[in-house]
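Revision sheet: structure tokens.
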Amino acid sequence: MKFFVSCAKGLEYLLADELLALGVAHATATVAGVNADGELRDAQRVVLWSRLASRALWPLATFDCPDEAALYAGVNALPWPEHLAEGDSLAVDAHVSGEGITHARFAAQRIKDAVVDRMRAEGFERPSVDVEHPDLRLNLSLRKGRATLSVDLGGGSLHKRGWRAAAHEAPLKENLAAAVLMRAGWPQRYADGGGLLDPMCGSGTLLIEGALMAAAVAPGLRHADPAAGARHALVPTRWKGFDLPGWNALLAEAQARAEAGLAALRPVFFGSDIDAAALDGARANAEAAGVAAALQLQCRDVAALQAPAGVATGSVVCNPPYDARLAADPALYRTLGDALRRAVPAWRASLLCGDDELAYATGLRATRKYRMFNGALECALIVCDPVAPPAREPAAPRALGEGAQMVANRLRKNLQKLKKWREREAVTCFRAYDADLPEYAAAIDVYLEDGGAARTFLHVQEYAAPASIDQDAARRRLGDLLAAAREVFAVPAERVAVKARSRGKGGSKYGRFQQREEFIVVREHGARLQVNLFDYLDTGLFLDHRPLRARMAREAVGKRFLNLFCYTGAASVEAAVAGAARTTSVDLSATYLEWCARNLALNGLGGQAHQLVQADALRWLEAERERFDVIFCDPPTFSNSARAEDFDVQREHLRLLRAAVARLAPGGVLYFSNNFRRFRLDEDGVAGFARCEEISPRTLDPDFERNPRIHRAWRLQALA
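Predicted:
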């Protein structure tokens, strides 16, 4: 039988692994949950033992549901006396999407009506509604006109363990705490004799969850709310289909394991916090959970953190402040990182930070990074193993080979040539080398991190070598180039992103990219922007468009700015930072628009003044009626997305430019650019609706002057 187990976004793959470990036959991660395959007893075991799940949903029926009448009929057709005892209470949770039914509360009400009507028609008493502690909780999922009605086997959210008597100002849900602990290698660290440390423990969620994990206390033993009364004691639902004998057998086993685990629990759980009231809450919670004797709590500023006594190694877990209730402070994150390096350098750390910037502010080197959601807040979970890698013995410098020395000399010459311009214009991201030596055919771009550890990164893209060049020779030359770059810029290999070409089926292509999910923040023209150097072919910032972005930002002050094919929205952000009254950014990719939103947020921008539109840019232009003062159009050369018409810039540029010029306000200007080397502008066609001037030479900064074919750009205005 297939059933669904929900969880917070970001926990899906962890949950899938957990379900398989619990004996579920098949588990496949999907958005905010896992599709599972197993028997009812397997699902009940999930309710009792899963530390990550939010709900376990056992389906009763699936049916077509185009409208509310179909919803009512589909629910009313079920034999509800077989599911709900007379006198039992009912609650319904609904999640809807699509056009037929748009309000979840209305859907829940119609389901309740259908159940009540069927029970009364069968001669039974009308069921009451109890949204807090119902005897039977139902769950509706309605997507694309298809309804799935399920029993919530846990009777509510499984993150509730039943011990939380006191909460800090912004408590972490217990299932998120479990995920942080699992990423920290806990409880295997406990089994190996290690301890658990939380230097900002608040009301103790991470420490208590860690202690219960170490003691093998099933989370479902305590999930029932005592306020529900004896009627619900240790029984998550009174659904008549519930396997009560099977549950009781699972329960007896879990109780025996819990008693043994708690009796043997070692006092290796160390917490501290600057807030004495929060620590009082932690003690009360630990007492309710039965693990108070294992916790050692101290009131202490994180800057005064000390290594726990009696344990040589272990896991650090922490949920530093980052939301509106607890203001995020990069300086606090830096203090945390410094304290961990000093006190527990050899431990493994799992830190749930507010965002990438705050994670970088710790100054710790993350060996893994994951995205998680604490409610609606997207967070960065970094794992550092160890907290502070031991310093390597400095290797004796190796002399560069003849070829590498040539590249190094050229790099130093280029840097000297660009120095005054970079200082004058405050340029921190630039091209340092562009196949200046033909036999070393690659581009080297430099990215200086803004804030955080202010690190230097290199982005190296190898150009395709002629077929006549031996692959081994090409690899040796690339190695020489990388050695030269690392020496000149004094950066470690882990901060050099290399996009090397490999030959395979279909000709020369780039190999697999890394999946580091590491974003760094850089600055351009006063705007802060996220780039990702390792995971994609492009970084999120086209450096060659730097002067064009600056020009448009100056012209957009107090005006309406439109960015077509916006990519990660760098031009929109810079226009907004410069003082644009409004920006509109259009792209077909949700990934790029989310990236654009993060870039806007980095600069304190957002809301109705800065709109993001997911659409085919050409179709959107032709349907739009609003006018703009400055428009930027940088289309791809080709596109064959399944969600839009095939696009070819050479074939479609006249149609595109006509539609864009039509959206210009009086006196408005359109900037058009592309990097297709064989592109030919239809000058006669454009002359029919716009004045057009090529400005390509004026849109290249000194770092791209040696390659004037990097892109072409035009300035267009509507004919009077």
